[in-house]
């Protein structure tokens, strides 16, 4: 497996412009149509070898963002540009050759692997769909992939239920790698695993990224999970990106009140530092994503809210080079 070419590091792999995914809500025939605005005007760019850690509470739209980028959902509006090609309106058939280059690792390693298939068939399925290897070569490739993710080549004939959660997630990673992707959506890949296994899986994903020049969108519900792997962080709240920047900037100088609250919940190893850090507890519920009211969507939970926040929806603005926030305080 070749090391990433240095000159390729500046290639833009993914460009997302004002991406929206709205789901219609069923109502009576005389009632006005409503929409769940699951993803609302999300924009970001990812270069080869970068990782965007996308964080936010359950239901904020991060998984829908990942699935819409992979065109598992058709976007409502906006643009998805992958390796320089606008794929927003490609049909399912036109997407087939591109599917190889855009893969997903799922959250639940128990549900995502078919218990009736052997590990060899699970990993080999995508190889067959794309006609990449046949016969002996196919078997050799599957064994190589199993070994690369820390399993044994002889596991090829076993069934998924014979493995632990961590091992199943490794099988899921091998399945994603089988078709030599450029970009992988990692949808909370460690949150269902034991804490002791989480670091191993993260380290492996980092090594694979370095070796193969992979680009990741790494979805997680809190900032501690994405800290080590992310070059950039995007914080989502109710379908919107409310802050984005390099990991260094967002962790050392969070701007949005919501990001500050999420960061205050990240465990700190130093007990003195932990005592000094005050946990910010968010009060109030997340509002409904169905036709959200005007103004800032965070206003009901924000102690800094001012009258303007109830009227004007804050735009995502660059307040320092590369550091963007959507908040009227800046
Ligand atoms: Fe709080 Fe207003 Fe900023 Fe929203 S725009 S986060 S309500 S200060």
TrEMBL record:
It holds the Pfam family oligo_HPY. SMART domains: AAA (SM00382). Gene3D superfamilies: P-loop containing nucleotide triphosphate hydrolases. Residues 14-263 form the ABC transporter domain. One of its GO terms (biological process) is transmembrane transport. GO terms for molecular function: ATP binding; ATP hydrolysis activity. InterPro entries: AAA+_ATPase, ABC_transp_ATP-bind, ABC_transporter-like_ATP-bd, ABC_transporter-like_CS, Oligopep_ABC_C, P-loop_NTPase. Keywords: ATP-binding, Nucleotide-binding, Transport. NCBIfam families: oligo_HPY, PRK11308.1. Belongs to the ABC transporter superfamily. This is Oligopeptide transport ATP-binding protein AppF. It comes from Clostridium bornimense. The gene is appF3.
């Amino acid at each position: 497996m070749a090391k990433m070419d240095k000159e390729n590091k500046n290639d833009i792999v993914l460009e997302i412009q004002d991406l929206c995914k709205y789901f219609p809500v069923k109502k009576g025939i005389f009632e006005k149509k409503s929409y769940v605005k699951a993803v609302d005007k999300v924009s970001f760019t990812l270069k080869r070898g970068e990782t965007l850690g996308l964080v936010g509470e359950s239901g904020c739209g991060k998984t829908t963002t990942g699935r819409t980028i992979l065109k598992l959902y058709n976007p409502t509006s906006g643009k998805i540009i992958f390796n320089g090609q606008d794929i927003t309106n490609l049909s399912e058939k036109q997407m087939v050759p591109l599917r190889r280059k855009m893969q997903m690792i799922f959250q639940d390693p128990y549900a995502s692997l078919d218990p009736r298939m052997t590990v060899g068939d699970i990993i080999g399925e995508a190889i067959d769909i794309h006609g990449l290897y046949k016969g002996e070569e196919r078997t050799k490739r599957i064994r190589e992939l199993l070994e690369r993710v820390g399993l044994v080549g002889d596991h090829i004939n076993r069934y998924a239920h014979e493995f632990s959660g961590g091992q199943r997630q490794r099988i899921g990673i091998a399945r994603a790698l089988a078709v030599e992707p450029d970009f992988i959506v990692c949808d909370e890949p460690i949150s269902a695993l034991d804490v002791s296994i989480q670091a191993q899986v993260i380290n492996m994903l980092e090594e694979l990224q370095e070796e193969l020049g992979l680009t990741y969108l790494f979805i997680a519900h809190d900032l501690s999970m994405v800290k080590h792997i992310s070059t950039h962080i995007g914080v989502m709240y109710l379908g919107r990106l409310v802050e984005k920047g390099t990991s260094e900037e967002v962790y050392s100088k969070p701007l949005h009140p919501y990001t500050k609250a999420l960061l205050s919940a990240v465990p700190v190893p130093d007990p003195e530092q932990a005592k000094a850090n005050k946990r910010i507890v968010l009060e109030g519920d997340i509002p409904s994503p169905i036709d959200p009211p005007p103004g800032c969507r965070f206003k009901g939970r924000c102690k800094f809210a001012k009258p303007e926040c109830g009227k004007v929806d804050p735009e995502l603005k660059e307040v320092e080079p590369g550091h963007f926030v959507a908040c009227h305080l800046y």
